[in-house]
């Protein structure tokens, strides 16, 4: 499975790089906003994009006027993510893997997560970077209470079937530059 996922990641990086654009990102923002506004007031996790990830930052900024917004902070391999409160004007510093995080961190637990990914399928399967951070995190959060996981990507990142293991957590919805798909 490790080899299969490694090949799938390599192909997914290339596909995402080929379609990454401001126009597609803007279309994705409109679709994502239509989904997350239904959850105003709930703690929302977004992310600061790295590499060629589609950006949720405009959605995070819009939602910050309605309730708490946070971003993931990556710890040691094998640990779940922690989430630091974020505001559009907070000072940021570089964290693990080149992701920017708030310089001053107050940790919260999100109820709605915008999840970055490399590829997805229509059954809620998600291929990430391989550290298992979101899988461990979603498993822990879902054990406590209902937690909505929204995959966010370019439509070209869709594949027929993501290679999955028993520890992989499924997404509840996928939002792309072309629309919204509920699983």
Automatic annotation (TrEMBL):
Cross-referenced SUPFAM superfamilies: NagB/RpiA/CoA transferase-like
Keyword hit for Nucleus: no
EC number, UniProt record: 6.3.3.2
Nucleus keyword on record: no
Residues involved in ATP binding: 5-9, 126-134
Cofactors that this protein relies on: Mg(2+)
GO function terms (MF aspect): 5-formyltetrahydrofolate cyclo-ligase activity; ATP binding; metal ion binding
Catalytic activity: (6S)-5-formyl-5,6,7,8-tetrahydrofolate + ATP = (6R)-5,10-methenyltetrahydrofolate + ADP + phosphate
GO biological process: folic acid-containing compound biosynthetic process; tetrahydrofolate interconversion
Record's keyword terms, sorted: ATP-binding, Ligase, Magnesium, Metal-binding, Nucleotide-binding
Binding residues for substrate: 48, 53
Transmembrane portions of the chain: none
Record-stated family: Belongs to the 5-formyltetrahydrofolate cyclo-ligase family.
Protein's name according to its UniProt entry: 5-formyltetrahydrofolate cyclo-ligase
Organism for this UniProt entry: Aliiroseovarius sediminilitoris
